[in-house]
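Order emerges. As here.
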Amino acid sequence: MDSPHVVILPFPAQGHIKPMLMLAELLSQAGFTISFVNNEQSHRRLDQAAFRRRCPGIEFLSIPDGLPPDHPRTGPSTVDLFFSTNTVSKPIFKNLIASMSRPPPACIISDGIMSFAIDVAADLGIPAITFRTFSATCTWTYFHLQKLIQEGEIPVLQGSDEDMDKLISCIPGLENIMRRRDLPQICRLDPENPILKFYVTESSKMTKASALILNTFEELEAPAISHLRTIFPAVYAIGPLQTASKSSAASYNSSSLLQIDQSCLSWLDSQPSRSVLYVSFGSVIVLNRDQFMEFWFGLVNSEKSFLWAIRPDMIWDENGPSKVPEELIMGATERGRIVGWAPQEDVLAHDAVAGFLTHSGWNSTLESISVGKPMICWPVIADQQVNSRCVSEMWKVGMDMKDICDRSTVEKLVRDLMEGRREDIMKSTVEIAGLAQDSVREGGSSDRNIKKLIEDIKLLHSTKNASRTIID
């Protein structure tokens, strides 16, 4: 019998492409044929050769995303992709899938915010599975956006600390955890805002999928996963994906759309154990010059060594992206090191690294959890506010400084983390890292879920083959 053919469609951003590529590798290692469909820009930037060497069963395809070639597709302009892909990419994707006959797809696995693929799958009679690249807790929160609007919790207006710290009571399971300031950043928008409407619509359309895949593990988010099982016929918690795949380090590096500076690993080799703070705000977040300077002086004043990944487009002024002042780069050489982009998993796993100052993106959060490195969280957009609250209050593996950006706070939290002043955090990071590793070992919860996903896709494939035989 021919091997199952799976089509995978990520949202065209680094943080979405990476976990879906890791899933593609796992399915390829199980003998599946994979068609991985990127937008044209990501398709050109991805190191496809590295994946083909490890997984010859993965074919990379591309479709246009509807934006001009010179569109930045990063920072604040990333949201333009929400609307262009739905209008321009949808019919092209449908034609691409309809033309596949070697063999026809057993299923389509699409990003949770590319749910037009679920419509395409329904039109073509193909099962659809949705992959939400957020945490289970944040995914559950997004399913309550409409209820939050009805309850008057949206828009969250920046008021007093008392107003912002009021607990949210209409999300089951999170009544004593989530405050107004911890809701996703889009909850600070007017209910009529197109971006908020987009997420409400996408969350609703996800429920038409036959199953949900999450890059998390049962032991970390059991309550939220249980709630999501009331919405979907099947939920597969298969993370942390970076530890589930045997070729995870290679997967991470070759899934990067940015040029990685490997030299920072040699620099870390020369540093004492647990002496360096790793700093990265991910592949999309931008800082204005004032914010950048507050972080800079907070780090310098802490008198701790740091490694900071600063993308060329990370700092913005009124005219767009701007460079790091040369004098700051020169001044970093005494205690710190600046790189354009780092091999993050290797950095976080390095013995010299004691902790992580992060934007709380889900990939970064899960990578830090997996290697037992505590976090200082400064969330900005999307799921990051929810993640940072989970880190500080639910899992106790870090500290949350959302809605604050001043050098004195940065200095204090860096000292607290680097000097081990929070014993509760240090204890939790070790315990949860152990659970993360156990989940992907033979017989662990994620290992079982991955195997169940593979078997269920094989069943879809055999059912489709049987139907085709009867028709023939």
